[in-house]
Amino acid sequence: MIGRLRGRLAYRAGDHVMIDVGGVGYLVYCSDRTLAALPRVGEPVSVYTDLVVREDLMQLFGFLSLVEKEWHRLLMGVQGVGAKVSLAILGALGPDGVSRAIALGDWSAVKAAKGVGPKTAQRIVLDLKDKAPAVMALSGEGGGALDPAAAPEDADVLDDADDAAAPAPVASAARHGGAAQADALSALGNLGYGPSDAAAAVATARAEAPDADAAALIRAALKLLAPKG
């Protein structure tokens, strides 16, 4: 299983890129948001990947964070959601936006993605809501964003085991936000709040203050979770 690619961007197309790794070109399909974040042709590039194998097709999908990759895997497991729809959702909302929409049960936000109808959006939220806390916590466990252009000259292919031994560079803002979110979820869990309630409160708090640290997120989430009236 190919878990990550590091090489040079050989060319861009409408929905995919080719990454040259040691003279071998890999076609990698990405969301619009990820495509826009990749460097220019000829420059170093690094992406997490997921290989989908079917009887008549093999496709690599590329992501800039493990959170994005995990949401793609989960979205693909929902009935009626294929790779095209999953990438459309991730492209429209981004991984943090997907986490927030799922945690809050906001199917209208999911429906805003191209090709997603109301029934599919509702099914996605219903099927995945219990998964949101674990994915949101992943961002604080090495699942932050890669720097897509931070590839060394001796580009290589890493499998999933190599990923664990050699963590990728992480953008400082994404690392800070992801770690704060994960710490807040852990603290709320220790206080006895259920995973779904905690995830929804933290998602709301982070949406209102994206740069907040863990302590600020916890305070804001506790206010949201406090009994009303």
UniProtKB/TrEMBL annotation:
This is Holliday junction branch migration complex subunit RuvA. Residues 73-92, 108-127 form the Helix-hairpin-helix DNA-binding motif class domain. The gene is ruvA. Residues 180-229 are annotated as: Domain III. The RuvA-RuvB-RuvC complex processes Holliday junction (HJ) DNA during genetic recombination and DNA repair, while the RuvA-RuvB complex plays an important role in the rescue of blocked DNA replication forks via replication fork reversal (RFR). RuvA specifically binds to HJ cruciform DNA, conferring on it an open structure. The RuvB hexamer acts as an ATP-dependent pump, pulling dsDNA into and through the RuvAB complex. HJ branch migration allows RuvC to scan DNA until it finds its consensus sequence, where it cleaves and resolves the cruciform DNA. Residues 1-64 are annotated as: Domain I. Belongs to the RuvA family. Has three domains with a flexible linker between the domains II and III and assumes an 'L' shape. Domain III is highly mobile and contacts RuvB. It is found in: Cytoplasm. It holds the Pfam family RuvA_N. Homotetramer. Forms an RuvA(8)-RuvB(12)-Holliday junction (HJ) complex. HJ DNA is sandwiched between 2 RuvA tetramers; dsDNA enters through RuvA and exits via RuvB. An RuvB hexamer assembles on each DNA strand where it exits the tetramer. Each RuvB hexamer is contacted by two RuvA subunits (via domain III) on 2 adjacent RuvB subunits; this complex drives branch migration. In the full resolvosome a probable DNA-RuvA(4)-RuvB(12)-RuvC(2) complex forms which resolves the HJ. It comes from the Bacteria. Keywords: Cytoplasm, DNA damage, DNA recombination, DNA repair, DNA-binding.
